[in-house]
Target: Copper chaperone PCu(A)C
Amino acid sequence: MSARPHKRLGGSTLRARLMLLAVCAILLAPARALAHDYLHGDLQVIHPAIPALAAPGGPWPVHMVIANDGAVADRLLAIETEFGPVRLRRPNATGGSDALAWLALPPGETVVLTTGETEGWIAEVPRALIVGEQVSGTLVFERAGRLPMVFLIDPAPETAALPVAIAREDAGAPDAGTQRDPGEDIVAIAAALSRATSGDARAVAPVVLQGDVALAGFRTGEATALAFLRFVPDAGWHVVLWSNDSLLLPASLIGLGVSRPAAERLISEARARIDAAGGAFAAALGRFPGTAYPSTPD
Model:
């Protein structure tokens, strides 16, 4: 089975879902990392991706994680790409695989689309796929409807797990040669949010890293908020505060000790990710009432 329960993003369930982001190659531009995902009603689509391909060929896999945070089941009816439809298959006991007409998304569960579990395949890719580019697509859900989106082109499997150097540009930060796995950073950020909110943080997205500081959107109860986090050597990521879209003002981050260039880059990337999440997310973020702090040191 490729479905995993996830009543709340906390504890082992939190790590299980977000470690999938580490398994997927979370693409980095210089000095930043971001989690590529979509919020679509009660559904969260995490890092839809296609491995790089040196020359035209097929069949070729697609990968993603879909979490149903609602109380009602849904079904993924189709995955459309600019190269044609994605065919769904599931390994069987005989060593082969069976075709699937649709993919069940039970309430409160997370479904993984990856090689060796439930699989998605494009019959033929007519061109090379270069790491970092995007391929347009649409997910079609029975209840949630159509979700236009993009697949990111990840490194091929033999290079996807290599650690990535994250540049540190703030004064006093480790030098740019320091190695840190961005997937582990995102896991640690989500865990820190869970601790700071007594387990209430869920649907953690988007996450944008800039050296040793980060912004992370999340839902808590009926509210949507944006958290500011800082990485402390030998202590890890901790939540400083969470607030509304006022954190997207340079003065807010500069007041928290972030250099102006780093603040501007962080805000630019965060705004792009929030815009990609849709107007409802941005509107909900703007309604968050003020600023909150962890009740106990994180």
